[in-house]
Amino acid sequence: MDNKQTVLVLGATGGIGGEMARQLRDAGWKVRAMQRSVPAAGELKDGIHWLRGDAMQQADVLAAAQGCSVIVHAVNPPGYRRWAELVLPMLDNSIAAAKAERATIVLPGTVYNYGPDAFPLLAETAPQQPLTRKGAIRVALEQRLQAASQQGARVLVVRAGDFFGPQAGNSWFAQGLVKPGRAVRSVSNPGRVGVGHQWAYLPDVARSMLALLARRDSLDAFSSFHFGGHWDADGSQMAQAICRVVARRGGVTPRVAAFPWWLMRLAAPFVETLRELQEMRYLWQQPVRLDNAKLVAVLGREPHTALDVAVEATLEGLGCLPVAQVESSLLLNQ
Q: Domain named NAD-dependent epimerase/dehydratase: which ranges (predicted)?
């Protein structure tokens, strides 16, 4: 297989990185993934070639990217910790590899880049004047990618709302709304009543990225797109979908309660992850929506899974649905 179908995925143990790795593999790509804990000689597992390496070590990234036409940069510090120290150096290593291989970097983007001056509807050309430290880092990150796109690399950025999906563990859905591995008794809603919020189902985001990658030769050297996903117009529809799915699968309809921001505020000085999450509260206090008109114009349509179907798959993946009901459903479908 030539290098046009060889890809390196950094962050393949995470939500969007893992989804991209699996979908690229299923689409016929030769997929490499890098992780510090795999054997030195590498390991082929589920059709993905795992290499030993550290995204903070440029030599490791350069070696893993040899012969690759695409680098998916989906690696982030776990739990939002040490962003200022780690995010930009890791990106610089991916940029160095992309320049060496004349490869395309794919970056899953966020709304952190934008501040209230650009709200509520965000086009790709909206001014990037963020309020937060993470937002400023995201802006710097994309500026470095823009520079790299003029020096031999190509760049594809797809910005999306809050991720959810069967394997999106580090997400508001899994860390805020429900508790992984437990039946859903209650849903904790971080948003204000009446305030819209945007959600992105990971398999749909990955499908969009793959479709854009197939057209990368016709795109600008630096191309950014906004993914529409699921728009929760009044901030209650995601919680209601969870309740519907749980009830339909035989559970007791959960109660919906407000997220305990006050408790997070008290604990934030002592827990770095909570401090970082508290910083992003403004995105739950006002409507922020990504305009996907450009993506639709290029692809013809945006991949879209119905909300209840996506929520059911997510809850199953998180181990939040009654086991007996899952087994019954499997028997009925045999």
A: 7-220
Which residues does residue 295 pair with via DSSP β-bridges, in sequence order? none
- Of 121, 133, 255, 122, nearest to 188 by C-alpha is 255
d(CA 99, CA 165): 32
Q: Give residues with Cβ within 8 angstroms of 74, minimum separation 6.
A: 9, 10, 11, 12, 14, 16, 17, 20, 106, 107, 108
83-101 vs 133-148: helix crossing angle, rounded to 10: 10
Using one digit for the tens of pLDDT, what is the confidence trace for 244-293? 999 999 889 999 999 887 677 776 566 666 666 777 788 889 999 999 99
Scan for tokens 């796109």, then name that residue.
Answer: 149
Amino acid at 281: R
Task: Tell which wins on pLDDT, 18 or 1.
Answer: 18
- C-alpha distances in Å from residue 133, one per residue of 82, 138, 198, 218, 282: 11, 9, 21, 34, 13
Global pTM? 0.91
Q: Report d(CA 74, CA 27) in Å as an integer.
A: 19
Pairing of strands 43-45, 48-52: antiparallel
Domains and CATH numbers, the chain: 3-164+199-230 (3.40.50.720)
Q: Which of 96, 25, 89 is nearest to 59 (CA)?
A: 96
